[in-house]
Structure formats: structure tokens, C-alpha cells
TrEMBL record:
Source organism of this protein record: Syntrophotalea acetylenivorans
GO molecular function (one): ATP binding
Protein name: histidine kinase
Record's keyword annotation contains Phosphoprotein: yes
Domain HAMP: 1-33
UniProt topology in membrane: Multi-pass membrane protein
Residues of the full protein shown: 210 to 480 of 480
The protein's Enzyme Commission number: 2.7.13.3
Length: 271
């Protein structure tokens, strides 16, 4: 892939073709680089809990005598197994989402109802840290969209789990639904630690974390936001973030607010 076509001096068709071809090669190379990086990162993320698991089992086999000691080791092993399970689950979700619309179960559903349900879960998640949660429906009528309801629920739950995770005790998390220019706009904002500007361009990358050490304790996989972005895009939408360190963060998911007929018209080849 390192070969490039020579681009002649003359601005003729062949030169333009060579330029286009070279640009396509560069794109392909970048894609391959990303895939290699991803496989490397995924292996690393799975190897860490596996190494801990192996170490603990070896220690237990060699030194533990008392049932209490075995129990402690097994409990700790269980945590690592759960961690690996979460990573694998997230990797599968991501792979399905990247496969595009075909892997989604697209049906009409009520976004308003979905957010009511998600809001109740946000309450529960926030309880332990005394985080106040709010649901703001700026539209009085029910918003119905075409999409994979279960997957979209996951999008909002990932954002809410992060909001709660990265907000200190007594803070607040707010979910807002609005419709702007034919798009449904769901914002999850928190009064948490925020994200420094230099990290913002990377947070949707797989396994990217602002604070690597903190993440292991929180149990996050580093794939949550990659899943959010991929699923929003698979629905023809997008996600934006705004943050001020020390004040809070807000993520906004935009989804095309189209009915079944419009959806079919726009996705004819995929339906
Ligand atoms: P993780 O499992 O680490 O939460 P994510 O992909 O969900 O993985 O998020 C990537 C990183 O973005 C997190 O590690 C964290 O540093 C940052 N982040 C995500 N959401 C927030 C938020 N609401 N407030 C502050 N930082 C956040």
C-alpha cells in the first residue's frame, strides 16, 4: 500500500485520476491503521484482567489453606471475570452497530416514553451519590421516531451512567428532549468534573479515557462513548459534546425525527 501513482505536472485527466487514487490509498491506509490499533487495544484491555485472574489463581493454588482465603481469591477473580464479560459485551455491541442499519431492529417507537423509562433508571443510579436527576420534556406532544428502541435506550443509559460516574456527590444530572429543525435533540448534562478541552476530540475513540487509573475502579470499559457515537450514526444521527472542567459536561444526541414513510423513502435500499 506504500506505492503512490506519480502525479504529472500537467493538470490533465490522468493526473487528476492519479491524485484521486492516491487520496483513496491514504484513506485506506488510515483505516487499516485504525483497525490495527483497535485490535491491539482490545487485546491489551482483555489481557489485563486475564493476567490478574491467572496470578490470583496461582497464588490461591500455591498458598491458600483456609476456606476464607479461597473465598477472598474467588471473589476477586469474579470481579475480573465480570470485567472481561463487560468488555466482550461492549465489543459485540460495537461490532453490530458498525455493521450498520441491517443489524438494527428498526420500528416506530415513542422517544418520550423511552426517556421516561431512562429517567427512572437515572434516579436509581444517582441515589447512592445523592445526585438529583431531572427530566425536561420541552415538547408537549409525544415524539415518535423510527429506530432500534433497545439500542437507543443503551445510548442514553451509557450517557447517564457516565454523568453519574463523573459527578461528585450531591450534584445533578438533567435529561432534556427538544425538537429542532426536524431533529429530535436529547441532551444529558451533568454538574460533574468536566473534560479538559484537549481531551474532547478523543473521548469518542474506543478505549480512550481521560484518567486511566480512575477507570478501573469505576468499572467502565472505555467503550461507552464509542458505542453512543456508532449507534447514533447508525440511526442517521450524531452526537456532540460541550464541557467546562469543574462545572460539568453535556452530551447531545441528534436523531432524525422521521415517521415510517420518510424512513422507508430515505433507506429504500436497506429496508
Ligand atoms: P468509560 O468506561 O471510561 O466511562 P466512555 O467511553 O464512556 O468510557 O468515556 C470515555 C472517557 O470520557 C471517560 O473515561 C471519561 O474520562 C470521559 N467522560 C465521559 N463522560 C464524561 C462525563 N459526563 N464527565 C466527565 N468525563 C466524562
Amino acid at each position: 500500500l506504500n506505492r503512490r501513482l506519480p502525479v504529472g505536472k500537467a493538470r490533465d485527466e490522468i493526473s487528476r485520476l492519479a491524485e484521486t487514487f492516491n487520496a483513496m490509498l491514504a484513506n485506506l491506509e488510515e483505516s487499516f491503521r485504525k483497525i490495527r490499533q483497535f485490535s491491539g487495544d482490545a487485546s491489551h484491555e482483555l489481557r489485563t484482567p486475564l493476567t490478574i485472574l491467572k496470578g490470583e489463581t496461582e497464588v490461591a493454588l500455591r498458598w491458600a489453606k483456609h476456606p476464607d482465603e479461597f473465598r477472598k481469591m474467588l471473589e476477586s477473580s469474579m470481579e475480573e471475570i465480570d470485567r472481561m464479560g463487560r468488555i466482550i459485551e461492549d465489543l459485540l455491541t460495537l461490532a453490530k452497530s458498525e455493521a450498520g442499519t441491517r443489524s438494527l431492529v428498526i420500528k416506530p417507537f415513542s422517544l418520550s416514553d423511552l426517556l421516561q423509562g431512562v429517567y427512572l433508571q437515572a434516579n436509581t443510579l444517582g441515589e447512592a451519590k445523592k445526585i438529583k436527576t431531572y427530566l425536561n420534556l420541552e415538547v408537549t406532544e409525544e415524539i415518535r421516531l423510527m429506530g432500534d428502541e433497545l439500542r437507543l435506550r443503551q445510548v442514553f443509559l451509557n450517557l447517564i451512567a457516565n454523568a453519574v460516574n463523573y459527578t461528585p456527590e450531591g450534584g445533578q444530572v438533567e435529561i432534556t428532549l427538544a425538537v429542532v429543525d426536524g431533529e429530535a435533540k436529547v441532551t444529558v448534562s451533568d454538574s460533574g468534573i468536566g473534560i479538559p478541552a484537549e481531551h474532547l476530540p478523543h473521548i469518542f475513540d474506543r478505549f480512550y479515557r481521560v484518567d486511566k487509573a480512575r477507570n478501573r475502579e469505576d468499572g467502565g470499559t472505555g467503550l461507552g462513548l464509542a458505542i453512543v457515537k456508532s449507534l447514533a450514526e447508525a440511526h442517521g444521527g450524531r452526537v456532540e459534546v460541550a464541557s467546562t472542567p469543574g462545572e460539568g459536561t453535556s452530551f447531545t444526541v441528534f436523531l432524525p425525527a422521521q415517521g415510517p414513510e420518510e424512513w422507508l423513502a430515505n433507506n429504500n435500499s436497506l429496508a
